[in-house]
Amino acid sequence: MIRRIAVSSKVGDARARHYLGTLKTIFPDISLSAVATAAVYTIDTRLSLKEIERAAGRLTNLLTETYSTQSIPHPQDYAYAIEIGYLPGVTDNVGKTARETIEDSTRRKFRADEAVYSSTFLFLSGTLTREEVENCAHELHNQLIERVNIYSAAEVQEGFPIIVPKVKLESVRKSVDEVDLDVSDEELSRIGKEGIKDADGSRRGPLALSLSAMKVIRAHFKNLDRNPTDVELEALAQTWSEHCKHTIFADPLDEVGDGIYHRYIKGATQKIRKQKGKKDFCVSVFKDNSGAIAFDDTYLVTHKVETHNAPSALDPFGGSVTAIVGVNRDCLGFGLGAKPIANVYGFCVADPHDERTLFRDKEKTQTLLPARRILEGVVRGINAGGNQSGIPTPLGFVATDPSFRGKPLVFGGTIGLLPRTVLGRKMYEKRARPGDYIVMLGGRVGLDGIHGATFSSESLSKGSPATAVQIGDPITQKKFSDAIVREARDKGLYNSITDNGAGGLSGSVGEMAREAGGCMVDLDTVPLKYSGLEPWQIWISESQERMTLAVPKGKWPAFKKIMDRHDVEATRIGMFTKSGKCIVRYRGKTVMDMSLKFLHDGRPIIHQRTKLTNTVRSDLTVSREVDLKKTLLDILARPNVGSTAFISEQYDFEVQGTSVTKPLHGRGRVNADSAVLQPLPDSSRGIILAHGYCPWYSAIDTYAMAATAIDTAVRNAICAGASREHLAILDNFCWSISESSERLYELKRAAEACYDIAVAYGTPFISGKDSMHNDFRGFGENGQFVHISALPTLLVSALGIIPDVARAMTIDWKCTGDVLYLVGETNDELGASEYAAMLGLSGGHAPKVNVKRNAKVYDAIVKANAQGLVASILGVGRGGLGVALAKQSIAGQMGARVDLSRIPGKARQSDAILFSESQGRILVSVRSTCEKAFEKLLKGIPHARIGEASGTDLSIELPGARVDVPCPSLTDAYRSYFKEW
Amino acid sequence: MNPVRNQQKLKRKRNPTISNGVKRPHVILFSGYGLNTEDETKAAFESVGATADIVHLNDVIARPNLLKKAHIIVFGGGFAYGDDTGAGKAYGNRVKAHLGGALQEFLTRDTLMLGICNGFQILTSAGILPGALISNDMPRYICRWVDLKVENDSPWLRGITSLSLPIAHGEGKYYAPPVQLALLSKASSIGVKYTKGEMYRHFDLPANPNGSLEDIAGVLGHGGRVLGLMPHPERAVRFTALPHWTLLREEYVRKGKEMPKEGPGIQLFRNAVQYFL
Known about the structure:
Radius of gyration of chain B: 18 Å
Distance between the termini of chain A: 44 Å
Number of domains of chain B: 1
Helix content of chain A: 25-40%
Oligomer: heterodimer
Radius of gyration of chain A: 29 Å
Distance between the termini of chain B: 18 Å
Strand order of the largest sheet of chain B: 2-1-3-4-11-10-9-6-7
Pfam family, one (chain A): AIRS
Domain PurM-like N-terminal (chain A): 288-417, 673-770
Helix content of chain B: 25-40%
Strand content of chain A: 15-25%
Binding site for Mg(2+) 2 (chain A): 330, 499
Protein name (chain A): Phosphoribosylformylglycinamidine synthase subunit PurL
Largest sheet of chain B: 9 strands, mixed
Mean pLDDT of chain B: 91
CATH class of chain B: Alpha Beta
Number of strands of chain B: 11
GO cellular component, one term (chain B): cytoplasm
């Protein structure tokens, strides 16, 4: 019998008040007077009356809550009730915890087909129409993952209907076992694009295999004298996907026969490592789930940044939880398992005030979520994923541009710590051996994320599968993370480990099989969330929170025991072999039998061609007679520049007790572009994290965009206390319309910049990722076709090691009388600047990176810091000098008198001096007794002594102009954009 | 080492000496199901001379005798069961159902117990400390530093009148019915209260971050031997953990003084160890 327990607050419900506030803000005209809530658990198992009472008691804090097992308690005078719960099959973490609580109270496990389903009831009071309530409900749920039911008070006098969102898969099997490829090119191409055709004529969803790839597959199986099975074709689609093989970066491009990844990214690292010689700090780069560098003689530090863009457009919350929890597994899956010690994030989104309504279909039934809800959702996702995992989030950013309206870019990164050796074993090397058990660890397999890898290799459009959306379960992952990092790893109980990300088991087992030389998998043994899955679905499902390990036979009992104690499900699903083949069985039949060579290397290589883009270079179209003071305040109030403290403060940056400099600097709490950690309790060595990005410059020149991203990341790291001696970087490319040769040209230029700048600075790439199809193809309000391509974007993440965290630096001006310096040159480089964007100006020059000069600047700063001369420091970035000075003033809650009329560089006009985004510039304050020592270090480097910190006004002297702004006005402007968030 | 003998010694006198001659109180830190601050809390205890073990809840349930060798039990911070169904509820229920007796027995000895953040929520859910922690007034997770004042003589807080520590929680508003609040106050059982101090002045942020009744940030039980608090002392054991330490560094430099090494949180751990020496 289905039972229901409802729990509601009896001491004032903050969440209900919050709902009321949110709805009144969004719908100011409706007469909503009150909101009440109840948490409801729908229990699908047999429980006695006594058991249900006991369970209810455990789900309720009797001091602050009441429960009912008979009805859903509601206010007397409510008008409508809204029930929001999950759709069948969507991860329901609350339901799962309730189930475990009930199991513990009855001391009896649920059967596999029994469950608890959570939902929330909202009771709305006031004079409301059904339509108004529907609008409210629409605002509060996401139709792709949640169900909603609306009841008027009159309708449900007999009680609320009970809904059980149980997964029921059709019992009639409609899948085909093998796929006939002996068809016309047109049909072959359709199979690649739309998927395998099942018995009922429906298509399974994109394989994202090109016609030439399909032809190679056809030829391969013709040789074998048989058709491929559906499992084989699906597995090939996963393995060969752009998402997994990075075909665009790997394949030849113009004269670059070895591909741009090999030539420019890996090539840069090889060259730098050679140049560094004995000082090379790279340990494991480009070959594992993360990149690793030396921390000290005993430990390594790893870093990896991922994106999760397409799913975040559909379900921003689920997409971003998965982004962060997924990249945590790239850390746990590095070597034999690094401990995650920090997360970083980045959101490239449309301005939340962007009011465009977009649809995925011409019929306008599938609305894209509004820009505001996408940002809200992705912010909440990292909150849930990072906080619940107990990993600090010290750094992140928000960047806005209208081009991110179709697909947001959601970056998630994880830094890890790993001993170099344990019991004489190198922890950064791994190898599955023939005879090892293939063990799946963590969550179970459902339909989640089927076609995830192939889906993200396609543009977002109508056919985008809703099952592509997964919701992470950080606690399941935390449980196996503890079990691995604290116990199993250091006991040497397994030979290899990797995460289940794109392509699920087909990806992880397929990859590890290369280490051993083959594998044999029995799909019947894979634990499932619910019955009825087809073998191909089990093989490629991207259900989250799973790792795959190679466990030697003799160590299996000890391994299994540890996992049992930690309440972690571990299952043997097969064995690694040396057959050279990947063999998969299901119900006594072989459903896949493929040589590893074809699986991994059979893909056709495409020779890609680029075409020069015809960008007309022009000067900035300007009327440059602006009110400089107002302009400065307006720029501070823009989402690309203004405070995102509301995000920084809802992410735990203190957990693990390693925080040295915080995400917000100074009294005025200004967002920093770097963070410093002390990862070990008994060593003062530190880790510096920093980022650099400037997608806007892509409108002018992708070389400048990429060069700036690297320069900015390096500069931000230097300004936190790093030195080029021990500084590595990571690249994350997010491109769009990558099939066009013009975009490929821009990609090539960006890759060239990566090589040039990284080699010049001696900062090797240690890991990277690319996401090449950030396009939205859909329809606008009038049904017109709309194509939105995200700006070509390179995020560069820096990872530096310093000997003593006590030398870390922050941006806030410290003391009255401190002397202010500007180091570096300011040129007229306003093209695609924040200033130009605000005024709607096009053209102009993007900043040029002068690596020789900048390197001198950065090295001088390192020396100054080593001598203890620096009181405050900030790299000049988006918004130029005006914004940088304002940020230091806000952070220190202190004014300054500054003269910018005679600074080095070619900028002459006041607006260019104030807002040009020339690279390589740093603002430094030093105490007055250190002036001489500091200037000595700057010999031969362009710099100017620009003033002194004093008073409460920021007063800036410019050629023929003067800007005077009180610090409180700057602060208000800086905090204004997200004030209500 | 003979845990039973130690236990008797503990009962008999204030100065227990472990039978192997080492004067080190032993700490057991609970783990599992999403608790996550065990490592840094263990490091904090060890840095002031304690020995410490991280033990999974399931292991303690399987062998409750493990607790007999402990002088201090800690339920640290984290997200047990993801805070699903309410912070600390699911873990607290399990503790109460399976270890209620063992923990009572532990507390009949002259021992100490600490619940930090999620651990505090667990201790209230398990009925070891009074009151409840409910959603912050602004129902969102918040991470920042707060100021605290101390008006009692709990062994955990000896010698401390005020200190600043970080918080990080979504359900940290302390609630208890008026009668109970009055009782707490009367019995000097309010552990720490949010107050206007250095952080408040520095950052211009509200002193009470979550709407806690009577500004309560932590409460005491068993004559002060059990402390539950929302702020995290284990994240404030180093000077460079302070949110404004780079400003303080400048002040020290200008006064020609050495910058301190320790942060304000370390004193709690030192107090706990001192209690047994």
